Amino acid sequence: MIPFIKKLSSKRLAILVPIPLFLLLWEIVSRVGLYNAALFPPPSRALLALIEMLKEGTLLSDAFISVKRVSIGFCLGSFAGISIGTLTGRSKFFGITLGQLIQLFRPIPVIAFVSLTIIFFGLGEFSKYFLITWGVFFPVWLNTDTGISRVESSYLRAAQSLGANTRRLLTEVIIPAALPYIAAGMRIGIAVAYICLIVAEMTGASEGLGYRIEITRLVFRIDKMIGILVVLGVLGALSDGAFVWFRNKLLPWHKWI
Amino acid sequence: MDLKEKYKMKGDSVVIPKISVRNLTVIYRGNHDTPAVQDFSFNVPAGGFTSLLGTSGCGKSTIINAIAGFVPPTKGQVLMDGNPIMGPGPDRVVVFQDYVLFPWKTVLGNVEFGPRMSGKSKNDCENIAKEYIELVGLRGYEHKYPGELSGGMAQRVGLARALASEETGVILMDEPFGSLDAQTRLIMQELLLKIWEDLHKTIVFVTHDVDEAILLAEEIIIMTASPGRVKKVIDVPMSRPRSYRDIASAEYIQIKGEVLTLIREETLKIMNVSSLVKK
């Protein structure tokens, strides 16, 4: 046993040891019967519940619609955040006027907009896209605005002295220099997108992982609920991991800025 | 007032200096009392190598920035080929002390930046860039990022980038080797000497290093401490091609003695070390 552990790298060890240990402990505590097993099911039951939902077909269709909502909302929110952030970061006029307007809305928690969104846009897909887009917009906008407005003036001078005009300055210098900031904003945006998704689905949807959590609560299938939480955790981690992978591929230099 | 026209009309055969700084005064906003540079005048002939030598904070960089077009003159004029300089442009590129390479571009991407801005074809840009990358001895490093390079390599990229902007007749160098260790600096100075002797560019070179100024320049302009004025102009008549060995020659030592005395006066002024002044 010990030579086996010694062979593993510390990174692998960090994954391979605590997770099984945690699951084992959970299984034992749940089975000992200290607490109602229906309200605190062991992980083995959650796994069986997941398989059950997979067989029913709800798991895949729920996951699919949720991922679709997150992806569309994330893309729209990022696009809006990057374009408007470039405008407010680059132009003093828009930075003051439009920037201040956005700052008025930014401190209002996204979740507080759920009811208003339903009243304005109903229970359809648009409501979900809107809420996620709204949530993703702010961190992406703020980071883009900061990144664009803080481009070191020495880069601008170097580029101008090499003959860059205003347009090339933006595309060749200002936007690339701000990309690490923008990427950091988008990464926060991914987490926000999932929060908005679940809130939107729990309050007014007929499918999706958030909706399924609500349903399992109503029918006391806590094992299914935990199964969905695990799926959400995995989806979130995969999205973040994929984003980081793409960032490292597309901006191999980001670590030197 | 267009000097070129004036000279043509007169029919004179006067040689117009490549760079002409006339009574330049620069006062930065929010600092009305002390100008960074005051009533500063000098000329650099085409193909010349002029060094601005002064203590730190004497306004050396301000003069480079004014010639580069980054900073407008408060009073006076900065002319290139007789025409007032209106803003930054590829006819005068700058080599910065901290290199200012674009970290998101590879070595090749950095060096071909100038040619690309002038609208050359993709192929031409790459060929020009490769030529200068080779010239500064960085062949094989084309696809590295600046973050992967040492300081000496980074500044060689900075030099290649400036040279690749081929309309450039003038290279403005703002303490370009100031961040390098002494050994690397010596090699860089030799590389620059060779490039200057081969390519006939006009160079304005700011430094606070006395040896560097004498080894490289044809003419040294010694500046007073704040505000920067011309203290004295010293010719460096040493023969070319020069090499690092020349720093042991009698001529060199004599010039160095003179320059050191002048610089020391200015340094003492700002440092207020009265005990040393009395001696």
Written description of the protein model:
The complex is a heterodimer of chains A (257) and B (279). With 257 residues, chain A is mainly α. Chain A is 81% helix and 0% strand. In chain A, helix 5 (58-90) packs antiparallel against helix 6, helix 5 crosses helix 11 (209-218) and helix 10 packs antiparallel against helix 12 (222-250). The longest helix of chain A is centred in the last third of the chain and has 39 residues, at 166-204. Chain A is flat and about 75 Å long. Chain B is an alpha/beta fold and 279 residues long. Chain B has ten helices and ten strands. Chain B has helices spanning 3-10, 60-68, 107-111, 113-117, 122-135, 151-164, 182-199, 210-216, 250-271, 274-278; strands at residues 19-26, 37-44, 49-53, 75-80, 83-84, 92-95, 170-174, 202-207, 219-223, 230-235. In chain B, a hairpin with a 2-residue loop joins strand 4 and strand 5 (83-84). The longest helix of chain B is centred in the C-terminal third of the chain and has 22 residues, at 250-271. Chain B is globular. Classes of the chains: A mainly alpha (257), B alpha/beta (279). Chain A binds chain B through residues 154-155, 157-165, 168, 172-173, 176-177, 179, 251-253, 255-257, and chain B through 68-70, 87-90, 92-94, 96, 98, 100, 102-105, 113-114, 117-118, 145-148, 161, 165, 167.
